[in-house]
Design goal:
Layout (H helix, E strand, L loop, with lengths): L2 H14 L7 H9 L20 E2 L9 E2 L2 H11 L6 E5 L5 H7 L4 E6 L2 H13 L5 E5 L12 E10 L4 H4 L2 E11 L6 E8 L2 E9 L17
Parallel strand pairs: 3-4, 3-6, 4-5, 6-7
Antiparallel strand pairs: 1-2, 7-8, 8-9
């Protein structure tokens, strides 16, 4: 067994399972996917630590691989079924999309940084995940062409409501992400129902903000 395989098992046993993640499909997926593939080579020793890892490598905006426990808890809250269509917004190097691809029928991933989107495509192709596609697009745009989706996952924090993404949910669809809009920072699930959207708090968390979903700067006299 390789050092990374051992680290992957320790990540699941020490970070994911203790975070009340009980969906065996998520656990199996995170055990199967080599997380080290999705970080720059120099940072691979950090791949399985309880960290948000910067994978942007000098891109125009900082982009991160989110902590394993946060990733797993968001996936569990999304309740992804094997026939579901899923959108991953701000996919960075593709890890969240790879895990979701093991759970869903089809996954579309968007990334605003074209170089990072190309790397995500390469990573996903290397794993022969034929049910996931990557598109270069601004975070707030989502993917209106393939919408509506059963589930949408935000790979980062939103400081403003991503209302355009809400409109890309199917009836009963779920958007899961972290929000910092009312003085608190917590993960939430937003459910589409009869033209309206219901919010349910999941857990407190602090993760990097997605580019395009930042709070507008306050006016200063």
């Amino acid at each position: 067994m390789s050092d990374f395989s051992i680290a992957r098992q320790k990540m699941v046993d020490g970070q994911v399972r203790p975070s009340d993640v009980t969906d065996s499909r998520i656990i199996d997926s995170m055990l199967a996917i080599p997380r080290e593939m999705f970080v720059p080579e120099a940072k691979r020793p950090l791949a399985y630590l309880d960290l948000d890892i910067d994978v942007s490598e000098g891109g125009s905006a900082k982009r991160f691989l989110l902590r394993p426990a946060v990733t797993a808890k968001m996936l569990q809250a999304a309740g992804i079924g094997e026939t579901d269509s899923v959108l991953v917004v701000g996919c960075a190097s593709g890890y969240l999309a790879a895990v979701a691809a093991h759970l869903a029928r089809r996954v579309t991933a968007t990334e605003c940084d074209s170089a990072l989107a190309a790397r995500a495509k390469s990573n996903l192709a290397a794993l022969a995940l034929g049910n996931v596609s990557v598109k270069t697009a601004p975070v707030p745009d989502g993917d209106s062409i393939d919408a509506p989706f059963d589930a949408i996952l935000l790979n980062g924090m939103a400081e403003v409501a991503p209302e355009n993404l809400y409109r890309q949910l199917k009836e009963g669809g779920r958007l899961v992400g972290a929000f910092a809009m009312a003085g608190t920072q917590r993960a939430m699930v937003v459910t589409a129902s009869h033209g309206d959207f219901g919010y349910r708090a999941l857990f407190d968390t602090t993760i990097p903000v997605l580019p395009g979903l930042e709070r507008p700067p306050a006016f200063v006299f």
